[in-house]
Amino acid sequence: MLILLNNLGIADISSAGRLIRNYWPLLLVILGLRILQQKNGAGYLSGGILIFLGFLLQGEKLGLLDFNISLLWKAFWPVILILLGISILRGPKWQEKSNWAVMGGIDRTKHPWKLENGNYLAFMGGITLDLRQAEMERKEYFLNCTALMGGIDIIVPEDLTVVCRGTAILGGIDFLGKSNGGIFATDEGQQGGHNSDQVVNISALAVMGGVDVKVKT
Q1: Facing residues of 101 across strands?
Q2: Percentage of the chain with pLDDT > 70?
Q3: Distance CA 154, CA 156 (A)
Q4: 93 DSSP assignment
């Protein structure tokens, strides 16, 4: 379409290219605002980080900030890949299913769904799991949750036994009302169900994002 408009003299592709090169960081700001609109605990942190990073890059593009942004990029993506590899390696070998939300979302809150062992990865996106709606056939489950510049929210009922362990790097984790985060943090949380012999084990890694496990009736 752009090529057609350029050939007809209606639009100038070179001008559009300059606009994209100069203002693409605003896409990060828009994505951050969209994540904030989801109004979930994990999303507030990841959305704020994306907005901050977008303004930082935009300021450098416009010459308002004087620093070498290339050093950030040279270190950023290798670190992300290393952390993702660590997450995969440390993940349990029994996982049956992988669920990815890449610049998108997974919402399992409105209808019944079957809970299975598995991996959940939110990369610049969001995942919400409501275990009150989940159909549980086993005695024990294992969920491996990784949030990279994204957010994962897990809602658990009061009568379910839940065991949480996690690590946050430039991000945050909130296990059953207990928050932790910062440059590097690890934490654990546990809830003993009153009327249930089922157990859900949650392993979390949050990198510039957040994982939130909350209790609701």
Answers
A1: 122
A2: 67
A3: 6
A4: T
- pLDDT tens digits for range 68-100: 666 666 666 666 666 556 555 555 554 567 898
Q: How many CB atoms lie within 10 A of CB 173?
A: 31
Q: Which residue has the tokens 């009736």?
A: 217
CA distances from residue 193 to 86, 137, 144, 158, 199 in whole angstroms, order as listed = 31, 17, 21, 6, 8
Whose tokens are 């070179």? That residue is 14
d(CA 169, CA 4): 47
Q: For 132-178, write each residue's pLDDT tens digit.
A: 999 998 899 999 999 988 899 999 999 899 999 998 887 889 999 88
- Helix axis angle for 41-61 and 25-37, nearest 10°, is 160
**In angstroms, rounded to a whole number, what is the distance separating the alpha carbons of residues 37 and 32?**
9
- Which residues, in sequence order, are bridge partners of residue 102? 123
Report the DSSP beta bridge partners of residue 106. 127
Tell me the pTM.
0.63
Q: 131: which 2 tokens?
A: 């275990």
Eight-state DSSP code of residue 21? H
Whether the Cβ atoms of residue 117 and residue 141 lie closer than 8 Å to each other: yes
- Give the number of other CB atoms < 10 A from CB of residue 29: 18
Q: Choose between 209 and 18: higher pLDDT.
A: 209
Tokens of 169: 């790097």
